[in-house]
Write a structure and sequence with these properties.
Length: about 475
């Protein structure tokens, strides 16, 4: 048999059209969190055709599934995470660098989860074929994880024990660079705050009413003052979910606002969340209303597993970056040019930090990352965003990779990202990701000492047991978040 790197490269390339079709199909479905019925079914069908045993409805979530292939003793047990949810309001024509909605007001894959799911699927299938080809023992599991853009699913999966028998997990995310992700993401917690008051005629008898909308607004005022007295890394976000109606001459007797708080560690998030709840209670007292807090989501912080990172970094360097063509560079430049001057100014700063001042003009004119940025555990930086991958990392050794699927400096959760997620840029990126993930699994399964080292890291972080940031009473908010 040829070298593992060559074998995986050949297998992925021979099946490239199939994996690209999965991306494009899921991209077209563009389904929101907890509503990914067609997307999940698409992935499940391919995995069934490949001989995987599929189990659906994991952790009480209809669109959450696992697909398992086992051989021999079944050890080690390898996991690959896939995602497939889209974002509201980001519909855009595929590959079009001019803003044009595909479905007016529709959803779109503005974070590239269509590519994430398809690339992860390609890796799982490649590992399965490698086990068959070599006759080696092992189990490969593809975990279908919905709602990463919503309330998440992986924390519910971890709480339900889905990852208990897994030895290690790899995943990836579409990005603008090629690297083992060297970030520490924020933990996050979110809840719906429901206020109930008394309706009345706002002109004739406003004194008989108790405004739930006033309570929401006063909560906002209180949280604005709170922002000055939290750690600099913390974030407090909000959105009105229910304003109590559209008639200004009626005192609103119901209203709801959603708050999410972030901080580097889940312990800090819990403390900050309690302070936000106190603000909400104060708003209810001031307005003579009642308040209910419906805790709905929480993610633990993500921190890279250094033992797995060492393996994946070597594999990424062997596989190499996506092989871009002149047409790819031209398309990426057109997308980069859609950003306003202020955004491009910030992008230039990012480019200078990553590539050096002397390469700024080169990268701005040919804005695709064609190299590998090595992993340095001493340079892990705090990232303001959050992901439920962190909860998997506190249950089992877990590592995330970044592979370029969009132009340098691309801003996520935009129509530009939606367009690029169904273009040759994403196609090449997801195939590269599939190769690196598959090779990382194969290399790790052959090094039991690395697996044990990776598990020791997890034990140091979680104290020997995963603890979900949500109490058992909080179920997946399928219809309310």
């Amino acid at each position: 048999m040829m070298r593992d790197t060559e074998w995986i490269d050949a297998f992925i390339e021979n099946n490239r059209e199939r994996f690209i079709k999965v991306n494009d199909d899921v991209w077209k479905y563009a389904e929101l969190a907890f509503r990914e019925e067609k997307s999940a079914a698409c992935l499940e069908q391919v995995l069934k055709e490949e001989g995987f045993s599929v189990e659906t409805g994991l952790a009480g979530i209809p669109t959450c599934f696992s697909a398992t292939y086992s051989q021999g003793s079944g050890k080690p047990v390898m996991g690959i995470l896939g995602e497939y949810d889209a974002l509201a309001g980001l519909s855009q024509e595929a590959g079009n660098p001019e803003k044009k909605e595909k479905v007016p007001g529709g959803a779109g894959h503005g974070c590239g989860h269509c590519a994430l799911g398809a690339g992860a699927l390609g890796a799982a299938v490649a590992v399965k074929e490698y086990l068959k080809e070599t006759g080696k023992d092992g189990t490969i599991i593809y975990f279908g994880c919905p709602a990463e853009e919503g309330a998440g699913s992986k924390q519910f999966m971890a709480r339900a024990g889905v990852f208990e028998q897994v030895d290690f997990v790899y995943t990836w995310h579409p990005a603008t660079v090629n690297q083992v992700e060297s970030v520490h993401s924020n933990a996050i917690m979110g809840a719906n705050f429901r206020f109930k008051g008394v309706s009345s005629h706002a002109g004739a008898t406003p004194y008989l009413g108790r405004s739930a909308l006033d309570a929401c607004e006063l909560m906002g005022v209180g949280c604005n003052y709170l922002r000055e007295h939290v750690i600099p890394e913390a974030r407090i976000h909000y959105a009105y979910i229910d304003t109590g109606g559209t008639a200004p001459n009626v005192v609103q007797d119901h209203a709801m606002v959603r708050y999410e708080v972030r901080a580097p560690y889940v312990s800090q998030v819990k403390e900050l969340f309690e302070r936000v709840k106190e603000v909400a209670r104060g708003a209810a007292i001031m307005t003579g209303t009642t308040m209910e807090c419906e805790l709905a989501m929480a993610f633990t912080e993500y921190i890279p597993n250094h033992a797995l990172a060492g393996v994946a970094d070597e594999c990424l360097k062997e596989v190499g970056a996506p092989r871009w063509t002149e047409e790819d560079y031209a398309l990426a430049k057109r997308f980069l040019d859609t950003y306003n001057e202020e955004t491009k100014k910030q992008i230039r700063k990012q480019v200078e930090e990553l590539y050096g001042e002397e390469r700024v003009e080169e990268m701005m004119s040919r804005p695709l990352d064609g190299e590998i940025h090595g992993y340095d555990p001493a340079k892990i930086r705090l990232q303001a965003g959050s992901t439920d991958v962190g909860d998997v990392g506190y249950a089992v050794p877990t590592l995330n990779l970044n592979i370029a699927t969009a132009c340098v400096g691309n801003v996520g959760h935009t129509w530009q990202m939606t367009a690029q997620s169904c273009s040759p840029l994403a196609h090449k990126g997801l195939l590269t990701a599939a190769k690196v993930l598959a090779l990382s699994c194969i290399r790790t399964m052959g090094q039991p000492e690395i697996i044990e080292k990776a598990k020791e890291e997890v034990k140091k972080r979680n104290g020997g047991r995963y603890q979900c940031p949500l109490p058992d009473s909080v179920q997946p908010p399928l219809d309310t978040y």
